[in-house]
Amino acid sequence: MPGLGVLVVLSLSLNLHTCLGFPSQLVNLDKELGGGGNSSQGAHGCGMCEPDLCPETRGCRAGLVPDACGCCMECGNVEGQACDPGNRSVYYGLCGTGLRCQADPRPAGGGEDEEEEEVCVCDEQEAVCGSDGTTYMNMCQFREAAFSKAQLRTRGRGPCTAVPVIKVPPQSQMNGTGSRLVFLCEVFAFPMALVEWRKVGRDVILPGDDPHISVQSRGGPLRFELSSWLQIEGAVLEDAGTYRCIARNTVGFVSASAVLGVLGAEDLSSFLANRDPERKLSDYNQNFY
């Protein structure tokens, strides 16, 4: 069939002419015909790889990783950032140096049917003491800090030995008699700190023998942290005063204070009316802990 042969030759000529005008189509045609070509990922529409045209990368705190086409380098994702598993960037990108992509280790906020998000997690979870006296929770956090601090070095494995630091101090508050009051104090320390509560003017560690005052402590919310609560049930006028949270370890101690005001029903109503006329007494009696 001579006519059919002419049509095939004419069709190939037209395709070749079109591909010469559009190089990316030539690469795709080459792949369709079984050729290797010089394209990174034809499925992503990457086209020819020209390293000289790759964009400049700056401020990559987690180092460099290959882009979706495997031609250029881009910033790697940092700890806690969403990521693509495997060694190919598809949507979120690849994790940077010393990080791996896995299911988010933090507690999920949704129900059982909620899909687990994959995030970048540091391979080395041991704490590191920096030459700046700061404790970094893992090596990846240290690397991020060292990116902007050229002189930063590791002083040793494990947290820095230092005087405790009060991360969340107790807050001053005002409330009425009979109310339930809570002071919170969060402390970071290594070696671990012992936290105690005192009321200024009383030479006793609370709760002492006072049945309506209690103290509770537990580890967290983060590593090397301790949270302590002072709770007053059924407050009376005599409970007013200044309360101190004191944290001690073998290196030293630190303290933070808060003032408690306790008013009778009439005085409290007058106080609230002058401070915020639209706020009700019940708004100040809520238990936030």
TrEMBL record:
Pfam families: Ig_3 (PF13927), IGFBP (PF00219), Kazal_2 (PF07648)
GO cellular component: extracellular space
Keyword flag Disulfide bond: yes
Residues covered by the IGFBP N-terminal domain: 42-123
Signal peptide: 1-21
Domain Ig-like: 164-261
Gene that this sequence comes from: LOC114863249
Protein name: Kazal-type serine protease inhibitor domain-containing protein 1-like
GO MF terms, alphabetically ordered: insulin-like growth factor binding; serine-type endopeptidase inhibitor activity
An example Gene Ontology biological process: regulation of cell growth
SMART domains: IB, IG, IGc2, KAZAL
Annotated localization: Secreted
InterPro entries for this protein: Growth_fac_rcpt_cys_sf, Ig-like_dom, Ig-like_dom_sf, Ig-like_fold, Ig_sub, Ig_sub2, IGFBP-like, IGFBP_rP_mac25
Key words of the record: Disulfide bond, Immunoglobulin domain, Protease inhibitor, Secreted, Serine protease inhibitor, Signal
Domain Kazal-like: 114-162
